[in-house]
Amino acid sequence: MQEDNPITPKPIRYSLGEPSERVIILQDDELYITHEYLYQTATPTRFYQYEKDTFCFVIKGSIYLKQNDKETALKEQQGVWLGARELNIATLLSPSTEICLIQFKKSHSNNAAIPLQKVSSGTVESVVGRNHTQSWPLWQGQLGRISLELYPPHYTEPLYYQKEATQYLLPLNGKVLISDKKTKMEECDALGKVFFKKVARAIANQSTTSVIALSITTSQRSSKGRVLILKRP
User: Fold this and answer.
1) What is the C-alpha to C-alpha distance for residues 131 and 145, in angstroms, rounded to an integer?
2) How far apart are CA 145 and CA 125, in angstroms?
3) How far is Cα 221 from Cα 213, in angstroms, rounded to an integer?
4) DSSP string of 189-216, one letter each residue
5) Among candidate residues 16, 38, 36, 34, the one with its CA nearest the CA of residue 25
6) Beta partners for 38?
7) Are 171 and 205 in contact (CB under 8 A)?
8) How many C-beta neighbours within 10 Å does residue 24 have?
9) 164, 222 contact by CB (below 8 A)
10) CA-CA distance, 120 to 94, in Å (whole number)?
11) CB neighbours (10 Å) of residue 62?
């Protein structure tokens, strides 16, 4: 494993009419991730039109989306694809709403994505993973994967790294603890955490209730992308 750990860039904040704001979490050759904190008093309606397909995920609150003759309402932990070059109108249905917008930068259009088709843990089948973890794949394609991950109570995973993939992890309820080979467990930031390829991490949930997190991972060219780090005796 490489010893050089890329430093996660500091979030960049833009005003959308106070107190509403946009926070750019990551912007590189593979992923573009932003959060938007929206308030009815400042931005009751917003317009979205992108050159690339964009996945819109509601972290908190609720919104009503309209694109041509299609429309849908999104609640917490639900998401849809906003079609490339299409004008999307978003109206807030709650006093405040927080959304996450995701683009896989290497593609303009995602043929597998159906605009405004709502996805959530209630619309896709879960997959049981290691040590009673659960995963709901909201979307999976050649460029990456968007999923909801459940970590059961008192869960601790071994230290590992991804050979080629970048991952973004955002806790949606409760506390997610993270450590690497050099530091003790620390609580994941409210804006989430970016793990670049070959960066060690171990995730834990030390509470008595399950924790759910949004996970965004770029593609892995090898089926053996996850590499465990063995502790020295």
Assistant:
1) 21
2) 15
3) 24
4) PTT-EEE-TT--BEEEE-SSS-EEEEEE
5) 34
6) 97
7) no
8) 16
9) yes
10) 19
11) 15
Q: Take residue 94 and report the two structure tokens written for it.
A: 């709650």
Taking the C-alpha atoms of residue 160 and residue 144, their distance in angstroms, rounded to an integer, is: 19
CB atoms within 10 A of CB 146: 23
Residue ranges of alpha helices (H) inside 45-179 are none
Cα separation of 149 and 30, whole Å? Answer: 21
Buried-exposed string 205-227: b where 16+ CB fall within 10 A, e elsewhere:
bebeebbbbbbbbbbbeeeebee
- Give pLDDT tens digits for 170-199: 999 999 999 987 778 899 999 999 999 999
Range of 38-47, 112-121, 220-229 with top mean pLDDT: 38-47
Q: What type of residue is 148? A: L
- Based on C-alpha coordinates, what's the Rg of the chain? 18
Q: How far apart are CA 62 and CA 174, in angstroms?
A: 20
On the question of pLDDT at 159 being above 80, the answer is yes
For tokens 């970016």, what's the residue? 194
How far apart, in Å, are the Cα atoms of 84 and each of 10, 15, 77, 107, 155?
A: 28, 24, 22, 10, 39
* Closest among 157, 134, 136, 155 to 147, alpha carbons compared: 136
- Lowest mean per-residue pLDDT among 25-29, 69-73, 215-219, 227-231: 227-231
How far, CA to CA in Å, does 202 sit from each of 69, 100, 151? Answer: 45, 24, 12
Residue, of 114 and 44, whose pLDDT is higher:
44
Tell which residue, 218, 217, 216, 220, has the closest CA to residue 56: 216
